[in-house]
């Protein structure tokens, strides 16, 4: 019984520390020192270990840490990854150009998804999503090829809003409300010579987390939000639709031996310093169990 419950504990922890989705092509933003400075060392180490994780889980890692600055980190924009860490990784596109995406999805979770042009300074979606799915990575049908290998077309009407490196990103966004997990990954890019939105036009005041979508899915409308950074508990319901409050409280993660006793009273000495420590601890525990 001791071995059985220990393996259950391991399985539960592994499900928490391993994430489920990220862009593999084009080369996306990656974590670096700029992210570390605003999101904290703990969050930075977590992303080095597991870039596939979800925003809610990353928030649990970062929240409460003394070096976590929620507003400056802004987990709802590219999961807190910063342009300053990716200045050498900027694509130059032309209006009308097709860009092929490859997405790594490790575990399916039924949800909604899209790729949109996001104005980084305001965290606002420019125009409509470039591609979207109303039923994404379904657990019933599995992940389909068109959800992980697809192309988008660079819009021809965004004017000069994305002319400079760091102005805009192509953000892949996947939300699975049933498990309260949201995944984001971004590609830095520039585009010049586009149409009528140049000049004094500004990005739509639509959060990258909030895009109003009608019941027909194909009709997308903008919705104004307060520019104050969105609390972690507020997230989209469908395709980045209207913001919703999370229906469940954040799950508790064991933080000490007393939190996770074995069935026979044996305590599990659970580390909390970093995700890498968790993995080392799991390997050590699994080795001990196999030796027994």
TrEMBL record:
It comes from the Eukaryota. Its cofactor is Cu(2+). Residues 238-248 have a biased composition (Polar residues). GO terms for molecular function: metal ion binding. It comes from Penicillium bovifimosum. Residues 222-271 are annotated as: Disordered. Residues 1-19 form the signal peptide. This is Chitin-binding type-4 domain-containing protein. The keyword ATP-binding does not apply. Residues 20-189 form the Chitin-binding type-4 domain. The keyword Zinc does not apply.
